[in-house]
Amino acid sequence: MNHTSNYLKSSLDLLHSYKNLGEKAMEQVSEEKLFWQYNEDSNSMATIVKHLSGNMHSRWTDFLTTDGEKPWRERDGEFENDIKNREEMMQVWEKGWKVLFDTLESLTESDFEKTVFIRNEAHTVVDAINRQLAHYASHIGQLIYLGKMLATGPWKSLSIPKGQSKTGFKKP
Question: pLDDT tens digit string along 119-138?
Protein backbone atom coordinates (compact mmCIF):
# COMPACT_ATOMS: atom_id res chain seq x y z
CA MET A 1 0.00 0.00 0.00
CA ASN A 2 1.32 3.46 -0.84
CA HIS A 3 1.07 6.66 1.19
CA THR A 4 -2.08 7.83 -0.58
CA SER A 5 -3.88 4.52 0.02
CA ASN A 6 -2.70 4.47 3.63
CA TYR A 7 -3.92 8.03 4.17
CA LEU A 8 -7.31 7.32 2.64
CA LYS A 9 -7.75 4.11 4.65
CA SER A 10 -6.71 5.92 7.84
CA SER A 11 -9.16 8.76 7.12
CA LEU A 12 -12.01 6.33 6.42
CA ASP A 13 -11.21 4.40 9.60
CA LEU A 14 -11.30 7.62 11.64
CA LEU A 15 -14.56 8.73 10.07
CA HIS A 16 -16.19 5.35 10.72
CA SER A 17 -14.97 5.63 14.31
CA TYR A 18 -16.43 9.16 14.65
CA LYS A 19 -19.76 7.93 13.26
CA ASN A 20 -19.79 5.02 15.70
CA LEU A 21 -18.95 7.26 18.68
CA GLY A 22 -21.72 9.69 17.77
CA GLU A 23 -24.22 6.87 17.48
CA LYS A 24 -23.19 5.33 20.80
CA ALA A 25 -23.59 8.72 22.48
CA MET A 26 -27.02 9.35 20.97
CA GLU A 27 -28.22 5.83 21.87
CA GLN A 28 -27.78 6.67 25.55
CA VAL A 29 -30.13 9.66 25.39
CA SER A 30 -33.92 9.51 25.50
CA GLU A 31 -35.74 10.72 22.41
CA GLU A 32 -37.05 13.89 24.07
CA LYS A 33 -33.58 14.90 25.26
CA LEU A 34 -32.15 14.66 21.72
CA PHE A 35 -33.88 18.02 21.14
CA TRP A 36 -32.84 19.76 24.36
CA GLN A 37 -30.77 22.96 24.07
CA TYR A 38 -29.09 24.69 26.96
CA ASN A 39 -30.11 28.10 25.56
CA GLU A 40 -31.09 29.65 22.24
CA ASP A 41 -27.44 30.03 21.21
CA SER A 42 -26.61 26.35 21.78
CA ASN A 43 -27.50 23.33 19.67
CA SER A 44 -29.38 20.18 20.51
CA MET A 45 -28.00 16.80 19.52
CA ALA A 46 -30.56 16.69 16.69
CA THR A 47 -29.44 20.10 15.44
CA ILE A 48 -25.79 19.02 15.45
CA VAL A 49 -26.80 15.95 13.42
CA LYS A 50 -28.69 18.16 10.96
CA HIS A 51 -25.70 20.49 10.58
CA LEU A 52 -23.24 17.61 10.10
CA SER A 53 -25.46 16.08 7.44
CA GLY A 54 -25.90 19.40 5.64
CA ASN A 55 -22.16 19.95 5.68
CA MET A 56 -21.50 16.43 4.42
CA HIS A 57 -23.96 16.82 1.55
CA SER A 58 -22.41 20.14 0.56
CA ARG A 59 -18.76 19.15 0.90
CA TRP A 60 -18.88 15.67 -0.60
CA THR A 61 -21.41 16.02 -3.44
CA ASP A 62 -19.35 16.45 -6.62
CA PHE A 63 -16.32 16.82 -4.35
CA LEU A 64 -13.73 16.96 -7.13
CA THR A 65 -15.65 19.17 -9.55
CA THR A 66 -17.64 21.82 -7.65
CA ASP A 67 -17.04 24.12 -4.70
CA GLY A 68 -17.71 22.39 -1.38
CA GLU A 69 -20.02 25.20 -0.31
CA LYS A 70 -22.92 24.48 -2.63
CA PRO A 71 -25.30 27.30 -3.64
CA TRP A 72 -28.26 25.07 -2.70
CA ARG A 73 -27.04 24.57 0.86
CA GLU A 74 -29.28 26.16 3.50
CA ARG A 75 -26.67 26.38 6.26
CA ASP A 76 -28.70 28.67 8.53
CA GLY A 77 -31.60 26.22 8.32
CA GLU A 78 -29.31 23.48 9.63
CA PHE A 79 -29.42 25.21 13.01
CA GLU A 80 -33.20 25.17 13.32
CA ASN A 81 -34.28 22.57 15.87
CA ASP A 82 -37.04 21.15 13.66
CA ILE A 83 -36.36 17.42 13.37
CA LYS A 84 -39.44 15.64 14.71
CA ASN A 85 -38.15 12.39 16.26
CA ARG A 86 -35.21 10.00 16.64
CA GLU A 87 -36.11 8.09 13.48
CA GLU A 88 -36.05 11.24 11.34
CA MET A 89 -32.81 12.36 13.00
CA MET A 90 -31.14 9.03 12.25
CA GLN A 91 -32.29 9.17 8.62
CA VAL A 92 -30.69 12.62 8.29
CA TRP A 93 -27.54 11.25 10.00
CA GLU A 94 -27.28 8.22 7.71
CA LYS A 95 -27.84 10.21 4.52
CA GLY A 96 -24.97 12.58 5.33
CA TRP A 97 -22.53 9.80 6.17
CA LYS A 98 -23.53 7.89 3.01
CA VAL A 99 -22.60 10.83 0.78
CA LEU A 100 -19.28 11.18 2.59
CA PHE A 101 -18.35 7.47 2.49
CA ASP A 102 -19.51 6.97 -1.10
CA THR A 103 -17.33 9.87 -2.20
CA LEU A 104 -14.22 8.97 -0.23
CA GLU A 105 -14.43 5.30 -1.18
CA SER A 106 -14.57 6.28 -4.86
CA LEU A 107 -11.37 8.35 -4.79
CA THR A 108 -8.42 7.12 -6.80
CA GLU A 109 -4.74 7.80 -6.33
CA SER A 110 -4.76 10.30 -9.21
CA ASP A 111 -7.58 12.26 -7.52
CA PHE A 112 -5.11 13.24 -4.81
CA GLU A 113 -3.24 15.35 -7.37
CA LYS A 114 -6.29 17.56 -7.91
CA THR A 115 -7.22 20.86 -6.33
CA VAL A 116 -10.65 21.25 -4.77
CA PHE A 117 -12.39 24.36 -3.52
CA ILE A 118 -14.29 25.13 -0.35
CA ARG A 119 -15.82 28.61 -0.23
CA ASN A 120 -13.65 29.57 -3.22
CA GLU A 121 -10.49 28.63 -1.31
CA ALA A 122 -8.18 26.12 -3.02
CA HIS A 123 -7.28 22.95 -1.10
CA THR A 124 -5.38 19.82 -1.89
CA VAL A 125 -7.58 16.76 -1.54
CA VAL A 126 -5.64 15.84 1.62
CA ASP A 127 -6.20 19.32 3.09
CA ALA A 128 -9.92 19.18 2.27
CA ILE A 129 -10.25 15.77 3.95
CA ASN A 130 -8.24 16.96 6.98
CA ARG A 131 -10.44 20.05 7.26
CA GLN A 132 -13.52 17.85 7.46
CA LEU A 133 -11.90 15.34 9.84
CA ALA A 134 -11.29 18.18 12.29
CA HIS A 135 -14.76 19.68 11.79
CA TYR A 136 -16.55 16.37 12.29
CA ALA A 137 -14.42 15.43 15.30
CA SER A 138 -15.39 18.67 17.03
CA HIS A 139 -19.10 18.02 16.51
CA ILE A 140 -18.83 14.37 17.55
CA GLY A 141 -17.18 15.67 20.74
CA GLN A 142 -20.20 17.92 21.26
CA LEU A 143 -22.54 14.94 20.82
CA ILE A 144 -20.54 12.96 23.38
CA TYR A 145 -20.50 15.85 25.86
CA LEU A 146 -24.24 16.37 25.51
CA GLY A 147 -24.76 12.62 25.73
CA LYS A 148 -22.93 12.45 29.05
CA MET A 149 -25.09 15.26 30.45
CA LEU A 150 -28.37 13.91 29.11
CA ALA A 151 -27.89 10.14 29.34
CA THR A 152 -30.76 8.03 30.54
CA GLY A 153 -29.16 5.97 33.30
CA PRO A 154 -25.43 5.66 33.95
CA TRP A 155 -23.15 6.69 31.09
CA LYS A 156 -21.58 3.78 29.23
CA SER A 157 -18.05 4.91 28.48
CA LEU A 158 -17.08 5.15 24.82
CA SER A 159 -13.42 4.54 25.62
CA ILE A 160 -11.64 3.49 28.79
CA PRO A 161 -13.92 4.13 31.80
CA LYS A 162 -12.59 6.24 34.65
CA GLY A 163 -10.42 4.23 37.02
CA GLN A 164 -9.75 1.44 34.52
CA SER A 165 -6.72 2.77 32.68
CA LYS A 166 -4.41 0.13 34.12
CA THR A 167 -6.76 -2.86 33.98
CA GLY A 168 -6.23 -3.78 30.34
CA PHE A 169 -9.73 -2.64 29.45
CA LYS A 170 -10.67 -3.21 25.83
CA LYS A 171 -12.75 -0.62 23.97
CA PRO A 172 -16.48 -1.42 23.66
Answer: 999 999 999 999 999 999 99
